[in-house]
């Protein structure tokens, strides 16, 4: 049994998707592995497939597109380190 990681930053999960995609892991298997480590509420299968397509289309950005609302946890951490 693996240790589970609770409340991961979205950019962390997207980085894992990008890594597994680069290793030719299929979206369904990526989702299964994410749920195994991060728990049921990590990300839907549909969202994994969305990120998978974006990375296959050449995107390297692991952050959501900018929009109004609360900033990404990763961006907040960078800002706090300044």
Give an account of the 3D structure.
InterPro entries: Mos1_HTH, Transposase-MT_Hybrid. This is Mos1 transposase HTH domain-containing protein. It comes from Araneus ventricosus (Orbweaver spider). The protein is an all-alpha fold. It has a domain of 48 residues: Arc Repressor Mutant, subunit A (Orthogonal Bundle), CATH 1.10.10. The protein contains 4 helices and no strands. Helix 1 crosses helix 3 and helix 2 packs across helix 3. It is globular and about 40 Å long. The model has no long low-confidence stretch (mean pLDDT 87).
SSE succession: HHHH
Count up the helices.
4
CATH architectural type of the domain at 10-57: Orthogonal Bundle
- Profile the largest sheet: none
Q: Based on CA inertia axes, which overall geometry fits? A: globular
* Helix-strand category: mainly alpha
Percent of residues in β-strands: under 5%
Protein name: Mos1 transposase HTH domain-containing protein
Pfam families: HTH_48 (PF17906)
Organism: Araneus ventricosus (Orbweaver spider)
Domain Mos1 transposase HTH: 14-58
